[in-house]
């Protein structure tokens, strides 16, 4: 059993935080199939300090999601610390500092992966958050800004010395964004030197691969992002390939229902499309049926069309 600070993490494989994807319904579906803990989407600390409703809503969660990590980002120590103090009211189990976001408008202003260029400052942020909150504080990093500055060893050392309770390492540089392959040797190096739990992340495409990575690199845990979209079974030994359409459909309907509970009927279904496309991928359907399904904004029509027996998948190509 691993622990992040005093928080017991019941498993080794979890859902990676993904803005626009890893909302409460999605996290719950993944937990249901074995994801070890929950990680919110990243939330802007410049907005949290004003308790902006949109940002606070990103931190809503259900009790069956625990342990839950709130992920925050920003470039100003005072705002990050103040935001961490505010969100404690919502009783997260862990607070995580995003040091990996590669998008220009985040990283170029020194937030997200921008903090990799100022590791001492990032360390101070961790220290100062720790003074104000009672939960463990962690960080999620990339291996460097670009191929010339792969400073993951230095960053991990500073964060650990600053009191980070765990670190997740996505094995790409900021410059790589999502191209190329994650460097798992670098992740393994961080693990070999660290005394705190280290989570590895990048490109895991199956439950078996997750377990291989855990073993090969002696990691405390791994996170799965993109391959978990529309495939919550990835957190368990069950392979989506072995499931019937009826079984896939039952989970998809549950997920869609929870999206509607969270976001309302129309917006919930619109947001669900990203997931739906992935649930359906690998299954070959009548293209007209599929595009009609992806357009629907009313629950009854959505359910009726999904349950219409005439529309069985033609072939399974996963
Ligand atoms: C759409 C999308 C949104 C993401 N949002 C976040 C985020 O809010 N916080 C974060 O730390 N990482 C974020 N990431 C990065 C993922 O957590 C993960 O590190 C990355 O996708 C590599 O893992 P994977 O290959 O398993 O997807 C995001 C990735 C994607 C694809």
Number of structural domains: 2
Assigned CATH class of the largest domain: Alpha Beta
Instruction: Give the ligands present.
Output: flavin mononucleotide
Radius of gyration: 20 Å
Q: Residue-averaged pLDDT, rounded?
A: 95
Structural class by sheet pairing and helices: alpha/beta
Q: How does CATH name the architecture of the largest domain?
A: Alpha-Beta Barrel
Work out the number of β strands: 12
Strand proportion, as a percent range, falls in 15-25%
The helix content is 40-55%
- The CATH homologous superfamily of the largest domain is called Aldolase class I
* Shape assignment: globular
Give the spatial strand order of the biggest sheet: 3-10-9-8-7-6-5-4
Could you give the distance between the termini?
33 Å
As residue ranges, the low-confidence spans are none
Give the number of helices: 13
CATH structural fold name of the largest domain: TIM Barrel
The main β sheet shows up as: 8 strands, parallel
Protein name: tRNA-dihydrouridine synthase
EC number: 1.3.1.-
Organism: Leptospira ellisii
Binding site for FMN: 17-19, 71, 140, 170, 225-226
């Amino acid at each position: 059993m691993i622990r992040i600070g005093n928080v017991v993490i019941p498993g080794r494989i979890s859902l990676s935080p993904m803005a626009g994807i890893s909302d409460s319904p999605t996290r719950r579906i993944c937990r249901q199939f074995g994801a070890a803990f929950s990680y919110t989407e990243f939330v802007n600390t410049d907005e949290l300090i004003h308790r902006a409703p949109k940002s606070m809503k990103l931190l809503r969660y259900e009790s069956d999601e625990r342990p839950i990590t709130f992920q925050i980002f920003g470039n100003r120590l005072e705002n990050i610390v103040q935001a961490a103090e505010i969100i404690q009211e919502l009783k997260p189990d862990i607070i995580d500092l995003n040091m990996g976001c590669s998008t220009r408008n985040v990283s170029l202003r020194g937030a997200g992966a921008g903090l990799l260029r100022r590791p001492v400052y990032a360390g101070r942020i961790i220290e100062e958050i720790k003074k104000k909150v009672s939960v463990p504080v962690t960080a999620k990093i990339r291996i460097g800004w670009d191929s010339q500055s792969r400073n993951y060893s230095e960053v991990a050392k500073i964060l650990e010395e600053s009191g980070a309770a765990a670190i997740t390492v996505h094995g790409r540089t900021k410059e790589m964004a999502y191209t190329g392959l994650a460097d798992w040797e670098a992740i393994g190096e961080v693990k070999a030197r660290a005394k705190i739990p280290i989570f590895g992340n990048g490109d895991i495409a199956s439950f078996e691969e997750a377990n291989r990575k855990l073993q090969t690199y002696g990691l405390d845990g791994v996170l799965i992002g993109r391959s978990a979209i529309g495939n919550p079974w990835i957190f368990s030994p069950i392979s989506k390939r072995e499931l019937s359409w009826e079984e896939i459909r039952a989970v998809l309907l549950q997920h869609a229902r929870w999206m509607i509970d969270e976001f309302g009927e129309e917006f919930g279904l619109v947001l669900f499309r990203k997931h739906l496309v992935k649930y359906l991928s690998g299954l070959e359907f009548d293209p007209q049926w599929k595009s009609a399904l992806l357009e629907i904004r009313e629950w009854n029509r959505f359910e009726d069309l999904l349950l219409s027996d005439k529309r069985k998948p033609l072939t399974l190509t996963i």
